[in-house]
Structures are given as C-alpha cells and as structure tokens.
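Q: For a teaching session next week I want to show students how multiple molecules come together into a single three-dimensional assembly. I've collected the sequence lines for a complex. Could you give me the predicted structure tokens for the whole thing so I can convert them for display?
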Amino acid sequence: MQTWDRDGFSIFKQEIYDSFRDCTTIGTNHFGSRDILNGRIDGTSGEYGITLSFLYFEKSGASLLDIAPGTREEERQGRELRECLEKIPDVKGIYLIPPDYFCSTEIILAALNGVAEIPVFGIKTSLLPEYRNFGFSAGGSLKGSRLFALIFHGEKLHIRIRYNLGWTPVGKIMTVTKEENPFFVDEIDGKPASDVYNRYLGLRNDQIIPENLSEFPLIIKRGDMEISRIGIAGPKDGQLLFGAPVYPGDKIRLSYGNPDDLLYEVIEDCIEIADFKPQAGLLIACSNRIMLLKEREREEIDYYRKFMCACAVVYGYAEIYYLNGQGGELNSALVSVAFREEDAENSSPCDTLRYFEGNEQKDSAIVPFSDRMSRFFKEMSNDLLTSAKEAEAANKAKSAFYSTVSHEIRTPLNSILGMNEMIRRESHEKEILDYAETISNSGKMLLALINDILDAEKIAAGKMQIVPVSYDIRKTIKELTDMVSVSAGSKGLVLKLEKDDDLPSVLIGDETRLRQCTLNLLNNAIKYTEKGTVYFKAGTEPVDNDHVKLTISVRDTGIGIKPEDIEKLSMPFERVDQSRNRNIEGTGLGLNIVKNLLELMGSSLEIKSTYGEGSEFSFSIIQELGRSSESSDSRNDNTAAGDGTGPFTAPDASVLIVDDTPSNIKIMSLLLKNSLINIDGAANGKTAILLCEKKKYDLIFIDHMMPEMDGIETLRKIRSDPENINAGSVFVMLTANDEAGMKEMYIKEGFDDYMSKPINVTELDLILRKYLSK
Ligand code: ADP
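A: Of course. Below is the structure for the complete assembly, covering every listed component.
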C-alpha cells in the first residue's frame, strides 16, 4: 500500500497505464483503510491508499468492456452489457465497477438476470468526482468514468462467490415511507429518517456519521438475503444519505455486530473455500468492517490468505454481489471470490494452510468491555425475542378462542331471539310481552357485543376488509337518525340532524363500515349525555370530478372527556373516567374499532372535548361519486324497505331449510308459521339433494358450515345437475358468517341472496316478498 496526494492520482493512473500496457486493468478510487482507521473518511486527509492487485490466468481470459455512463440510464447500460456478454463464450464471472457513486447498479444487474448463472461482483467508486474509476484493456487506451465490466471467461475456469455479513438484526421492523431518490431517504415509519439514530443510538443529526454507526448498520431483507445499509446524515435536516439504494416499502431493522461474530462467518467461508481448491482469490470488503474490526481487520484477510494464497483485496463503500437473481449493492459486507482454472480433482491449489495450524490463541483473563457488552446485548435480545414470540403465540391462541366462542354464541342466540319473537307474536298478555321486550333488547345488546369482539379480532389479525358498494348516503343518514331517535327520546335528549341540502344521492364506499362508525358515535353521544342535545352533522365537499370528501360529526352536551384521557380512548378496552360512568354499560371496544375502521378507509377520528360540557367526534372520508342511475346495493334496499305492507302469506309456496342444527330449522319454521308456507327441513347436504330431486321448491335456505358437505358444495351439486328439478330454484345462504364481503362471495358461488344469523325478521320478510310474491 502506498499513499498519494490528490494530484498523484492522475499521475498514478498514467504510470499504471505506461507500466502495464499488456495487462487488462481496472481501478477504482476509494479512501484507503489507513485514513479510515484514523477517522479521516471525508477526503480531507489528502492521503489516499492505493492497493495494486494482480490476477494471472494461464488458461482463461479477462476482457474489459466499457459502457458510456449517463444519469438514470442504467437500463440502457444493463442492456448494452447484456448484448456484449452474449458475444463472449464461456463467461464465468463479471467484475463490475459502476461509473459513479449514485449509479443504480441494481438496475444494471436486473438486466443480467436470466442471462446465465454468472456470478457478478464488484465495487462502487467513491463520492469524490475527481477520483472516478479507470480502466484499459491490453493495448487499448486509458479510459475513466465509465461503467467497467471485467469479463472472466474460459472453458476450465470456475468462480465461486460468497457474501459474508456477520451483523445480526435486532428490534422493531420499520418501513421506508418517503424518499427523494433511492440514496436520499426522508422518512422511516412516517417520521424523519434520522429519528432511527436519534432514538436508538442517542445521536444528534450532526453526529450521524459512519464512526458512530459502524456497529449498528440497518438491515433489509431482500429475498433470502439480509443486506446491510448505512445511512449518514443527508443534506436536508432529518434526511439520511445511503451508500446503496433503499426503496419505499423496504423493511429495515437495526443490527449490531462485534468482531467475533464477523470473523466467525469469515472462518465458515474459509472452510468452504478449502473444498473449492482455489488457485487465486479476490476479497471485496466494506470500509465499515475496518471501522468495526479496527486492529483485527488484518485477521479476516489473514484467514483467507491461509486458505487461498494469491488473494487480492479491494476496499469500498458499496460492494456488489449478484448470483441467480439475488443480491445487489451491499454495505458492511465482505464478498469473497475464489478462482480455479482446473476441475477440482486436478487442481493443485497453492499451499493451503489449515487455519488452526500455528494460530496462537491470544488468551487473556480480562475480556474487553465492548466484547462483553455486545455479548450481553445479543443474549438479552435473544431472550426478549423468545418472550415476544411466546406472547404472540399466546395472543393468537386467545384471538382464535374469542372468535370461535363469539361465533358459537350466535347459534343459541338465534334460538333465544327466534323463540322470543314467537312469544311476541303469539302472546297477548302485557306482562309476558314486557318480559319478551327485555329479552329482545338484551339479546340485541349481546349480539352487538359479539359483533364488536369479532370485529376487533378481525382487525387485530389484519383480516378486516373494506368492501365498497354504491349506496344512497341520504337514506343511510335517515336510517341512522331513525335508529337512535328512540333511545335519545327516551332519555329526554334532542337529536338534531344538520345535513347539507346538496348531498349527492349515490356514493361508492363501504356503507356497512361507515354506518357502523357513525352509529357507534351516535350511541356514545346518547350514552354519555344526561341532558341537552346531540347534533348529527353530515356534509360533502368536492375533491375532483369523481370524488367527494364526506364529513360526519357527532357533537353532544354530555359529560365530556378530560384532555389527558383523550389519547387513551382509542386503546382497546380502555374506558375513561370510570368513577363517573361506572353505571353506563360498555366494553371500551367501540372507539377502538371506529378508529381502526377509519384508518382502513384512509381516514382518522378527530376528538374535541371540554370536560363537563360536551364532546365532538368527527371524521372525513373520500368517497367515489356513483351515477344516479346506478341502483344502490340490494342489501341496503332491504334495510331501507322496512316493513312490508301487512303480513305476508304464500300458502302455495314450498320452502326447504337445510341446517345441521335442528333448533335453527325449528325457529325458521316457527318464524314462517304465519306465512302459511309449506316447509321441509334437511339436516345435511345429502338429504337436501335427495329432497331436491323429488320436490320442486320455490325457495331454499342453506346453512354454510355443515359437516361432510357444506352449503356451497350442496348448492354446486344441485345447480350442476340438469336432471334436478331445483337446478334453477332460488337459493339463499343463511349463515352465522356475517363478515363484510361475504354476501358478494356467496353470490359469486351461485346463491341468489344471503341472510345472516341470528335471523332478522324484517330481513326475512323482505326475502319472502322478493322471491315468493307472484
Ligand atoms: P364503551 O362506550 O363501550 O365504554 P367506547 O370505546 O365506545 O366504549 O368508548 C370508550 C370510552 O370513551 C367510554 O368508556 C367513555 O369513557 C368515553 N366516551 C366515548 N364517547 C364519549 C362521549 N360522547 N362523551 C364522553 N365520553 C365518551
């Protein structure tokens, strides 16, 4: 290694050219390891390390390709490189030097994908513009600042590459959310990118320099590879400048490393290299390793030299490793390249020394503090990780249990509410009707609670889906007002609706979830207000030709919320001011569900409140404008249509009910009693098919989850059998599976309609009228 002043670089290049005209040569500029060790990596030291490495081949060749550079022209460069490669026989490896630091080498590499399983390795030249790369082929002219590719080829040539890192990712997974370009990242997890280092390493922005980061590079998982990235303080406040590309959506974690871990990976590599029987080697190592390994830096090179003599070394900022479509630009890594010009059995590798031979173990009673610290850190992180995994598994089991139990409660609840409905229909005693009213109200509350638990679990499991349909917003608002006006009235509260006169008629969005959020806010306002008024406001503002911003606000003159309690409100199960609202029923799940649903719909819940005076909950969501001719979703028509005109009867109609729970068939039969319809029941799919072969039904209700043959399969069998007289009958899915999007799914499967359990009598009435009215 030699040191040169700045001007020396061009003199040096010329001297190399003059001295080695018969060789193929490429070179890149990088600050020397000595500067880095001295903490001078800003290019101000005026001293640059030069490493000269020679690789001699007896039976193989090395051809130099050079391609014109160009900002954002990596695709063209990749294409040209690929075209050149196709003309060279027996290509076994490529040594790539991109023209400058901000070249997106990964785009060039992507162009090579699938050419052949050719290993690509290389290094990027440094940031300083006056020290770009250079190269010349034997007898050719000296060139600089181009994309250089040294192509190794030869029938007998074998090249093996491996990528070594040695750092271990720890802690939270974060996401890159905003960037100027792949080298300048503005935000991680929606916060200024520098927060990562401010928070975890206690660094001020001006302290985000490589010397403070070498032990803790960021790690990104790409395919099967964990690759490292180092971001130093960028030109804008809060921005990080990366030495290799990072993309929006990249998942990153901090990592830690210590010399022993780095060297351990290297030793593993060396042992594998011995089996390859190399005749020469090239090591491409990141400067960050030198910063971490310090005086032990020589150890890793020495290990390789023991297994692979004639081993050249290149240091850089972004190492290139690419094999079988995986890899790209790396940081903190060491890429080892081993060459052999023979088949392994004929190879007489240079004197391979066994690593342990003559390697004196330095054993001292006192272990350096940093080694103990990193060991402690590693073991503690592993313990925490294990407990986090255990907690996650327990949480998953708990969620699954809640979902199953909630689902199972629906079946007996269906019986309770169904039978109760019969009491309400058939009893004329006032006292009994009062009891039935209480059962009905409690049943509805229980059902709402189960739905909340199921929703909360679905949100927690990331399974909640937003299903847009076209709906009439004016109808939705009217129905919501009707729904809560009774409870507001019974408390002596005034319910005031203030809606824009020019609300569009048809919107497209998830009406079910919009209704759920608004209803929750209205119910809360009534629940937590003793006297006064609940204001329900709805309005829209145009966004563009196709969209409007719908704003819903619910304001009350109730108990209000203390400022310190407001942020606790969206936590699940959190109920605030317990001393005041001890007697008010609730679970503390509602607002959390509202907040999450709004988030899924791209909105958020705004809360304003004055303790003792009242609160206002509001949100705005973007909805697509539907065409007025577009009929709104049929399920909404159902709810909107309300009660039919007088009791419905169809004495000539035949209906089949297929359900494996006998009480469900019984309840349906009872609920249909007054309609005088002829009813048959089937306890499973097989019986249903047999009945359907013999008798024509006007309407068939089928449960989904049944043992042996489920509802969907039963339907398929009947529909696909042209001989079956019911192949074209009306089928309605009747299920406790009440998730959003289910109706669409069942209709896609061939059902004509869908009804959820527990049975809503108004809905049942509508279905009967829809399909049985002649
Ligand atoms: P629940 O009403 O079932 O307890 P929520 O999640 O709907 O659960 O609300 C959480 C808490 O927020 C309530 O327990 C109550 O303390 C407070 N809260 C919600 N809405 C209001 C309101 N309009 N006025 C005052 N406090 C409210």
